[in-house]
Amino acid sequence: MIKAKKSLGQNFLIDKNILEKITDITDIKDKIILEIGPGTGNLTSYILKKNPKKIFVIEKDDNLALNLKNKFNDKLIIINDDVLKIDENILFKDKVIVFGNLPYNISTEILSKWIINLKESFWFESLVLMFQKEVADRIIAKFNTSNYGRLSIICNWKLNIKKVCDIKPGAFYPKPKVDSSLLFFHPKKNFIKLNNPKNLEKVTRIFFNQRRKMLKKPYNQLFNGDQKVCNKLKINLSLRPQNLNLDTYCKLAYEYENLRS
Prior knowledge:
Layout: E1 12-13, H1 16-23, E2 32-36, H2 42-49, E3 54-58, H3 62-72, E4 77-79, H4 88-91, E5 96-101, H5 107-116, E6 124-132, H6 133-139, H7 150-158, E7 159-167, E8 172-173, E9 180-187, H8 198-208, H9 216-223, H10 228-233, H11 246-260
Parallel strand pairs: 2-3, 2-5, 3-4, 5-6
Antiparallel strand pairs: 1-8, 6-9, 7-9
């Protein structure tokens, strides 16, 4: 029995019904697949049954990477590295479908990196990802709700997101102390273009740094008190950060970018 490493946030998915449900979300026959953190290869086995064209897996743990090599022989292309250090835009020439029971301690970092580093064209066709339920609730949160924040805005900027289901701790080994949620992401055709996506990161960070305060102070910090952008976007500065929708934050980032160029 392979022991899960707490330091790497490892919880191996073992529920056969959930494994089957994950691989039924989207058609993967003859597609190129990327699996993040395959662990003991439970989901990998179900993916292989669907006859994909090729499977890449990224596994940081040396022992697990070796185990996968022994278990699947030449059926996988194993990348024994840290997913946060890999540039997927360079790695993949064709679009891939990504599966991942992401390590909970770095799940938001992985997703944010993918979105912020996206080039003109998407390197993936869709993402099928597992998160801690609390994190998933923040990702899919709508404006005017308490869960809505930076993560909601950055994730929904370029992606359509659908919650597939919640998953209880008993579906994993070892059992995590929290529920999980499975989310399905696919690219939007239309979204506000930014030359540097980090401007959206900065705008949302400054606004949500004090999420209970009014918009006036963070707005003035970004735009030096100039009311032109506020008037143009018809923003009420007495509102709170959670009261502005996704579109408004993207427009604010666009205006901020223009101001600095």
